[in-house]
Fold:
Amino acid sequence: MGEVIAVVSQKGGVGKTATAVNLGACLSAIKRRVLLVGIDPQCGLGKCFGISPGDTRPGLIDVLRDGAPADEVIYRVHPRLPRLDVIPANVDSMTEEAEFRNLLDEEFTNFSRVIDQLRPSYDFIFIDCPPRLDMPTKAALMVADSYLVPIQCEFASMATVGGTLRGALEVKRRLNPKLAIFGFLLTMADRRARFAITVVREVRQYLKERVFRTIIPRDPRIAEVPHRQAPVITYDLECPGARAYIQLAREILGARIL
Amino acid sequence: MGEVIAVVSQKGGVGKTATAVNLGACLSAIKRRVLLVGIDPQCGLGKCFGISPGDTRPGLIDVLRDGAPADEVIYRVHPRLPRLDVIPANVDSMTEEAEFRNLLDEEFTNFSRVIDQLRPSYDFIFIDCPPRLDMPTKAALMVADSYLVPIQCEFASMATVGGTLRGALEVKRRLNPKLAIFGFLLTMADRRARFAITVVREVRQYLKERVFRTIIPRDPRIAEVPHRQAPVITYDLECPGARAYIQLAREILGARIL
Ligand SMILES: Nc1ncnc2c1ncn2[C@@H]1O[C@H](COP(=O)(O)OP(=O)(O)OP(=O)(O)O)[C@@H](O)[C@H]1O
Ligand SMILES: Nc1ncnc2c1ncn2[C@@H]1O[C@H](COP(=O)(O)OP(=O)(O)OP(=O)(O)O)[C@@H](O)[C@H]1O
Ligand SMILES: [Mg+2]
Ligand SMILES: [Mg+2]
Structure:
């Protein structure tokens, strides 16, 4: 049965979408079946695979609004990654964005039913969330088994971890008692910057073994993903970013087997 | 009379707070009176000056909720920048965050009255917004004369500019007809990455003269601001990031005089 993991952080630009896309791809390359679900109305996840809201292709909003069957919005996204599927949000405008948030709020049971139906077909289901903790992210935390928090190796991002943790614990206390920590992931570690070393040390002191051992370096090849519309391992297996996400996938699978 | 400028982008981590803090500081160093207002419940702006929500010091939420006088929440933040004032959001928890959004929604006239009272005392009032366009950002766009959109020199950020522009135009059409474009600012341009050159070219083709000529480079000295709790020009006037924000301030003042 698939584990449902919400990728969350109130801080913007810390690598939530990059992690969902690249970790998902690496896990699927190591024979796990992975589904990525986009609930960020910015549609960053879909855009990383060439699926844009302007396309006529349906997305999650069509499932929630019109009851479209889930398998009509599941896209197989890369020929060399047959075990990686994506459900884009495909929200097209400000009005649809507000409607989408309301649908996740008022029709939460619909969203949770769809996710539960999909669980048996996947080993991991990652939900890519926008940089906020209210709706739509709240719906992801309500339906998830656990949450993954990327922490950019910079002071600004480190300062917001407490807020994200408190917010997730509040959802756990009031709405989803099973919600556990999947892990904290240090991202965009810039070897040239002295402060990255300070941030890594302080985050490990504060969060201890809940922080993955693997650190994702800042690597321009990762930033090409939205342009190449494919995960980094499909165009560069050797770059530092790809190696790190592969190592992270192995670390996660290693921990799971035990 | 002060110009009120909302610093907005739905994309997270593109340099909204860094621009409000460092551009504000540079303008105040060139003899302009500048006020920075934080409405991001993450309190990133306040944290850049050592004002944390955990402090007992009041913030904007106290003005909106309890009618505290605005001058009780204005902080003079740096001895060498006497013309730079800050009003932090100082929102302390998830519940206060929801309350803050509601206050800006239901008591919008209160917020707009406070901003109007402050206008005569400043040349520029920058409102630092969270990475979203609904409340609280919507209130900033409703009260602002114009808006500044930082665009990180990466594909993911470029892909969201259309959405931010559409959202702002919708507020202009329905709620604030005077809302104009202050400008688009290219940030975190990484000289090493080939894609930065592509992004700069494409953004200039698409937005033309609405893009500032000045480009802010990626500079680790800028990322130290939340740790040093002061704008970059107070600790390094010569680094590429400080020079770029000084140049941007001159470009803005040059354009204004004409
Ligand atoms: N390891 C990395 N090295 C270099 N660039 C990266 C890395 N990870 C992500 N990026 C780039 O940094 C930017 C922010 O990453 P991303 O969009 O994944 O963050 P996010 O947390 O999803 O942002 P948002 O809060 O807007 O949803 C993007 O341009 C992305 O391509
Ligand atoms: N020119 C720059 N060079 C290097 N780092 C920068 C630059 N500008 C901002 N940063 C750093 O990048 C990160 C994101 O910047 P910042 O927090 O200002 O963005 P934001 O748009 O306000 O984010 P959010 O969407 O979370 O509000 C921070 O760690 C900041 O210190
Ligand atoms: Mg994202
Ligand atoms: Mg910010």
About this structure: The beta strands of chain B are 3-7, 34-38, 75-76, 84-87, 124-128, 146-152, 180-189, 211-217. Chain B has twelve helices and eight strands.
